[in-house]
Design a protein that fits this description.
Blueprint lengths: L1 H9 L16 H19 L4 E6 L11 E4 L2 E12 L4 E8 L12 E5 L2 E3 L2 E3 L3 H4 L2 E5 L9 E3 L13 E8 L10 E4 L2 E12 L4 E9 L11 E4 L3 E6 L2 E6 L2 H6 L2 E4 L14 E6 L2 H4 L7 E8 L11 E4 L2 E8 L17 E8 H4 L8 H13 L3 E6 L7 E6 L11 E2 L2 E4 L5 H18 L2 H33 L2 H4 L1 H24 L6 H29 L21
């Protein structure tokens, strides 16, 4: 043991203390750590935003494969898909590139791009090979957000397309679908972007988009109506057939315009609300909201007279039939004349005169009463022979009446007259009455007597004909044609002889020349004898006395 102690004492002793210099080998892991930290920071710094998309289902979504595109450029990828049990939908998480951060506006739109076949055509065929993807359409808002609801279908128009968006609401109109056209004079100027039904208001609500520059056509006086494919109407105005474009004929659409009797008006702003009407004619009704109700008691049949039929004055519409009938009266204790069918008539002030709305209702009631006093009456007339539809015609062929009109159901009563068919019926009945009043028996008896005498005369004529026939058969008359023939032969011979005699004096014969010269000589002698004859006519005594001496006056006897 001592030897071991001595050996250990001879060994040098280690000195324990703090190391004052770091080994260079530690620089390698330190550098690696710094590089890794820098890479993590750089990746975090260049990492894009993470967004959450809510979808009704995850059809076509694959984690790590489904991309997010803008203008067919990849800007992100789906990183997670999970169920959102609270709202029964799918929660999709996607990571976008840093450059896409400014595209996440509040009004940005997302939808799935996949093969589709709809009324606008076939789209998304390229996804049959590449797979479905999520399309991002950036908005215009300056506010950003990271949660969005994916649309079930692609939007009709992009948010950045210039134009005008309008809100429409209507009751009892044909239900239209998203994508249906908006027409102006049958030319497509926009589309229906949204369509839903409000159960509280019980009306359809639509959102329209009007493309630029057609948005300037929408003014405060514009009217919107449903332009269905084919509209066929049978009324007192005849048969009306309206058709739109081929697309509207298949699916329908919305048309708009400004009424002809109204100015264009000022342009409207975005999200302006309008009323949607069932057709173009009903869109004009707000122009004639001010109207005066009257009652007309017609004694003619009102079959064919329908509510909405026109009330016309010399072909110009001034009102509308409101109800047929209106409060049917009781029939007891009334004469046949009092059994008039009450019809509600609306006289529309906007149709009576330009600027009629400026006057009060009392003013127009006095005007109507004055017209009634001058002989105004209402008559039923046939507006369409094919459908039998009637309309109310305002005429002035009635008698003058008092200005104070009668009342029926607290409404003023306008006088009525017989319509066109009733007048024809009355004339036919009057003609039949006159024919019935004629004494036809005597005329018929005289006619029978005349027929009998005519029969007797016919018998006499037959007897006379038989007598003449017997006379013609007598032998003496049988040779008469031969005698006539011989006589005609002798006449012919005489004519031939005369013709040969006259032939000697033709223009080519010598006798004709001699005769012509003789006639010329006679003519010359007559020319020379003409003065002598004139003198003898003037003074018959020229042959006895000298023409130069005056007539000798005989001397008278001496007294």
């Amino acid at each position: 043991m001592e030897n071991e102690v001595e050996k250990n004492a001879e060994l040098p002793q280690a000195k324990i203390g703090w190391l004052r210099r770091v080994s260079l080998i530690w620089l390698v892991p330190l550098a690696a750590l710094l590089v890794g930290a820098w890479m993590v920071y750089d990746t975090w710094r260049h990492q894009g935003p993470e967004i959450v998309l809510y979808m009704p289902n995850a059809e076509g979504i694959e984690v790590g494969k489904t991309t997010v595109k803008v203008l067919s450029v990849n800007v992100g990828k789906v990183i997670d898909v999970e169920l959102d049990s609270v709202k029964n939908r799918v929660r999709v998480t996607a990571r976008l590139d840093l450059e896409a951060r400014d595209l996440l506006n509040v009004d940005s739109q997302f939808w799935m791009v996949k093969p589709r076949v709809d009324r606008s055509g076939i789209s998304g065929l390229s996804t049959l090979l590449s797979g479905s993807f999520i399309q991002l359409n950036p908005g215009k808002s300056k506010n950003l957000q990271n949660e969005f609801i994916v649309l079930n279908e692609p939007p009709v128009t992009a948010a950045d397309v210039p134009g005008l968006r309008l809100a429409l609401s209507g009751r009892g109109v044909k239900v239209l679908s998203v994508g249906d056209p908006v027409l102006y004079q049958n030319f497509e100027v926009g589309r229906v972007e949204k369509a839903d039904f409000d159960p509280e208001q019980r009306q359809m609500n639509y959102r329209l988009f009007i493309q630029h520059p057609y948005d300037r056509l929408v003014t405060v006086n514009s009217r919107f109506w449903v332009a269905s494919g084919v509209q066929l109407a049978l009324s007192a105005d005849g048969i009306k057939l309206n058709t739109g474009s081929m697309e509207s004929m298949l699916s329908g659409g919305i048309a708009f315009g400004v009424p002809d009797n109204m100015p264009m008006g000022e342009q409207v702003s975005d999200q302006t609300r309008f009323t949607l009407f069932t057709d173009e004619s009903s869109s004009l009704e707000p122009l004639f909201e001010r109207r005066l109700p009257y009652i007309a008691l017609f004694s003619d049949s009102v079959r064919g007279l329908k509510p909405g039929a026109p009330v016309e004055l010399r072909g110009l519409r001034i009102g509308t039939v409101g109800a047929v009938p209106y409060l049917i009266p009781k029939l007891e204790n009334k004469t046949r004349k009092d059994h008039g069918i009450p019809v509600l008539i609306y006289l529309e002030l906007g149709r009576l005169a330009t600027g009629a709305d400026k006057e009060s209702d009392d003013y127009w009631r006095k005007v109507i009463a004055t017209q009634v006093a001058s002989g105004m009456v209402l008559k039923l007339k046939n507006g369409n022979l094919l459908t039998g539809a009637l309309y109310v015609d305002v005429d002035f062929s009635g008698k003058a009446r008092a200005k104070v009109l009668e009342r029926y159901a607290n409404l003023a009563v306008l006088p009525t007259g017989d319509g066109g068919l009733a007048q024809i019926e009355n004339k036919v009945i009057a003609l039949l009455d006159k024919l019935n009043a004629l004494k036809v028996e005597g005329v018929l008896a005289q006619g029978n007597k005349t027929l009998d005498e005519t029969g007797k005369l016919a018998g006499d004529v037959r007897t006379l004909v038989k007598t003449l026939d017997d006379f013609a058969q007598q032998p003496q008359l049988q040779g008469l044609p031969d005698e006539v023939q011989r006589t005609l032969s002798k006449v012919q011979d005489t004519l031939n002889t005369l013709n040969s005699t006259l032939g000697d004096y033709s223009g080519q014969s010598a006798a004709y020349g001699e005769l012509n010269r003789t006639l010329e000589s006679v003519n010359q002698v007559l020319q020379e004898a003409r003065p002598v004859i004139r003198t003898l006519n003037e003074k018959p005594n020229v042959l006895l006395f000298d023409r130069k001496q005056e007539d000798v006056q005989p001397k008278g006897a001496k007294p």
